[in-house]
Prior knowledge:
The chain is mainly alpha-helical. Helix content is 64%, strand content 4%. The chain folds into 3 domains: 8-62; 101-166, Arc Repressor Mutant, subunit A (Orthogonal Bundle), CATH 1.10.10; 171-236. The chain has 10 helices and 3 strands; from the N terminus they run H-H-H-H-H-H-E-H-H-E-E-H-H. Strands 1-3-2 form a 3-stranded antiparallel β-sheet. Helix 1 runs antiparallel to helix 2 and helix 9 (171-196) runs antiparallel to helix 10. Mean pLDDT is 87; it is low at 72-76.
Amino acid sequence: MPGGRLTQQERQQIALGLADGLPYAEIARSLDRPTSTVTREVMRNGGPTAYRADLAHRATEHRQHRRKQAGPRGSKATPQAHGRDAEAVHEFEEVFTTVLIQSGMPKMMSRVLTCLTITDSGSLTAAELVERLQVSPASVSKAIAYLEDQSFIRRERDERRRDRYVVDDDIWYQSMIASARATDRVIETARQGVGILVPGTPAAARLEGVARFLDFVSENTTRAANQAREVLHTKSGTAPEAPRD
């Protein structure tokens, strides 16, 4: 029934809809469900290309069983501000993490970035991340190092001289610029290879094609990021900072 948990039959209908290339909204209408329910179901169970109804149903049963087992040990959900539904927030956290993983980001790094992103303050200490994610300090430390290197997060010192890891509106811009700079290094190296492999040869022509394509993409990515940042900061009334090196 609408509003309850998805049945195995509904999951099979979702799988058929995905196989037919139907958009989430159309699949949701056929089930009399919100589009967000179908989106969440698909993204937490492999995405549109890897979704399998039977596996998704078993995974859901396993999660329910695990939560029932965890209940008697005194575990409790993170308190939610602003009247948010704790279960809905938890499910969204899983979906957003899955999307990041499918984009190529490692699992623990995706979990840390998601945790920071959906925190109202946008910042947490390493100890707070360990507590919220229920993982080891070493796992958090490794994830933080990766995210800092990719410019997804930055480090600040609070009044107690603790390191806080911050994700804010400008972080995605900084990450895009860092990615463009990394691409520029690939372009430069490819063009060096053209000379080494002798211009006009098939291998050199291939490298030249790589360099030209990436140069076009990198230039347009940087331009679009700068334009979007300028527009968004103008609307919010804050002046953008210079890109970080």
